[in-house]
Amino acid sequence: DETASLRELCAVVKKDLSFTGQFEPVVEFLPALSSKKDLLAYHEKGTPLLLSVIDDAKNNCVEWRLYDTKTAKMRSGKKLAKQGNLIRGWGHAVADQVVMVLTNHEGPFSSKLVYCKENLTAQKSIVCIADYDGSNEQVLVNANSLIVAPRWNHDKQNPLVLYSEYTMENLRLMVCDLKKKKKIAANFDGLNMLPAFSEDGQHVVVCLSAGGSCQLYRYNFDKHKKRGQYHRLTDNTGNNLSPSIMKNGSILFCSDYELNGPNIYTMNKDGGNVKRISEGGFCTSPTYCAAHNKVA
Fold it and tell me: How many CB atoms lie within 10 A of CB 157?
């Protein structure tokens, strides 16, 4: 049935699939697909795939089925329990699964962006979250001080945003959940910023200056003692920033200790075997892609 929620749901799925540049979806509302002949008719009109979406309000789920119109056979289909009250969230989940079936790559649609906005004149900052394409912006943190470098943790079930906040004494690391509850994560002298999380969430690499140059430290969390310990990883006269923990446990980071300018390095999880992987020049802010094991 063509309900308001189904119209909104299909509009989200259409927008998501169009965003990739790989699909040109058209939305039609039908009472049913009753026969193989119906599917073959779409193939004759030049439509290779048909995605059926049903909003099952009675069972609180969304059902989708993907058909190949040339063979009139279903390629895949699933029922999704509705998570939360936002219809666009249900639509993003459908689009993610359909893209996985068609391309064998995880869709980005349920992911969130986090970023800062600054009013330098008023010395105020806000931290915002938004959908994957920058739409539906929401303010997560509103502060009277300057905020920089927000980062997600590595836990889809308990998402947290970590960011650095200027105080009169230091640049402290704060953590905030999606209910806007925040607390101090690290408050050492100097800089506390740019945390990177391991896949299992048990290890964090963070930049601390403690009155000198910026060095990298590993924070190992002991769930039994409900606290952790810091272990220094770098020990040089330069500044070491932008860490990422790679798939094999090695650490990717930026440092200026060797060439008097920033370059990209790797080291093992304990800080040994440091290797420069960039070839000079001015190289900053490395980003690691676990899916392809590559660095941008």
Answer: 5
Structural contact between residues 205 and 251, judged by C-beta atoms closer than 8 angstroms: yes
* 82/155 Cα distance (integer angstroms): 20
Residues in the chain: 296
Distance CA 20, CA 17 (A): 6
pLDDT digit string (tens) for 130-180? 999 999 999 999 988 899 999 999 888 899 999 999 999 999 999 999 999
- Give the H/E segment covering residue 189: none
Q: What is this structure's pTM?
A: 0.85
d(CA 49, CA 99): 12
Q: Are 253 and 238 in contact (CB under 8 A)?
A: no
Inter-residue contact 11 to 27 (CB < 8 Å)? yes
Angle (CA) 63-82-88 rounded to 5° is 90
Residue written as token pair 């058909």: 67
